[in-house]
Write a structure and sequence with these properties.
single chain; alpha/beta; OB fold (Dihydrolipoamide Acetyltransferase, E2P); Rossmann fold; Ribonucleotide Reductase Protein R1, domain 1; 3 domains; five-stranded mixed β-barrel; about 25% strand
Length: about 325
């Protein structure tokens, strides 16, 4: 007899997927009586590969299987049969249905890269993924940490300034996680070496993620995460630990068009549609409401500079790409 069960992909390695959150067991369209394990491991049906569709960690899926098998689960011929509709997905890292991303940067070592951070924030906004800005290592340069906080607070983001070394600000972000992440999938992103794994270990004791220092020569950290996986959170929800979820992963900047870009700058939105010209590019146009807000200090110069850089890249993007 063939059974069908729903679940979430929590890890994928070499075409073998671990599926958790199992529920809704049915057999031949009726209610099944079989015991449901906490997780199962299975592969995807070949039809996904033929259609160039790859299951992603975070996907809600339906798995089919039959009675039998040599293990204690008594299941055989397990396969991912269907991928349920995604609310979003990312190419690198391969991850679906993200709710929140903590975008991390350091006040120093490595030097903060606001332009790369802003690119990542725009991609998250376009994919309707909520972003929270985390400024770590504030013990190294408190003035720079405060300057960055002011920029991203002005842009409309929730900002945390903290130090894992001294403990400053850590309790505040822990409280936020407990309040806001229940039932959600969250991830930490940022350039290598900014302290993502250290912070995740601090917030989520028991993860025991590998960490490494920053090269003094190139001011970059060594990537310590090798596979994407979801860790269950107390009270529900998951934390994604992802390899290479850094700024460099978005160099293939083909996620949207220059016409979409203004909406991805959160602080621009209240001024859109108020410019003198309907097709205002918000770069140098006369009567631009965004530029007026910039002059009035309502938009940070570094954020508009990032917009100009992104606009220049997207302007060269061919429509057929």
């Amino acid at each position: 007899m063939e059974y069908r069960i729903k679940g979430k992909i929590i890890q994928g390695v070499g075409g073998l997927y671990t599926v958790g959150d199992l529920e809704g067991l049915t057999a031949d369209g009726g209610a099944g009586k079989m015991h449901v394990p906490d997780t199962i491991e299975c592969r995807a049906r070949g039809v996904f590969r033929h259609n160039k569709i790859k299951p992603l960690v975070g996907d809600e899926v339906e798995v089919t299987f039959e009675d039998g098998g040599d293990d204690e689960k008594g299941m055989k011929n397990m396969q991912i049969a269907e991928i349920l509709p995604r609310k979003n997905s990312l190419i690198r890292p391969p991850l679906a249905n993200l709710d929140t991303v903590f975008v991390a940067m350091a006040s120093s070592c490595p030097k903060p890269m606001p332009d790369a951070t802003d690119k990542l924030l725009s991609i998250l906004e376009f994919n309707k993924i909520d972003a929270v800005v985390v400024i770590g290592k504030c013990e190294l340069d408190g003035d720079e940490a405060q300057r960055l906080k002011e920029i991203y607070t002005l842009a409309g983001y929730r900002v945390f300034v903290l130090s894992c070394k001294t403990g400053e600000g850590v309790d505040e972000i822990k409280d936020f996680v407990r309040r806001e992440l229940c039932g959600k999938i969250a991830a930490f992103a940022g350039a290598s070496g900014v302290g993502k794994s250290t912070l995740m270990n601090e917030i989520f004791p028991g993860l025991d993620l590998e960490t490494s220092g920053v090269s003094q020569k190139i001011e970059r950290g060594k990537n310590t995460t090798r596979t994407t996986r979801l860790f269950p959170l107390e009270g529900g929800g998951y934390l994604a630990d992802t390899p290479g979820f850094s700024m460099l992963d978005f160099e293939r900047f083909d996620f949207f068009t220059k016409e979409d870009l203004p909406e991805t700058m959160r602080e621009f939105r209240e001024y859109l549609g108020k410019c003198r010209y309907t097709k205002c590019t918000h770069t140098k146009d006369e009567g631009c409401a965004v530029l007026e807000a910039l002059r009035d200090g309502k938009i940070a110069k570094s954020r508009h500079d990032s917009y100009l850089e992104l606009y220049a890249v997207l302007k060269e993007k061919k429509a057929w790409k």
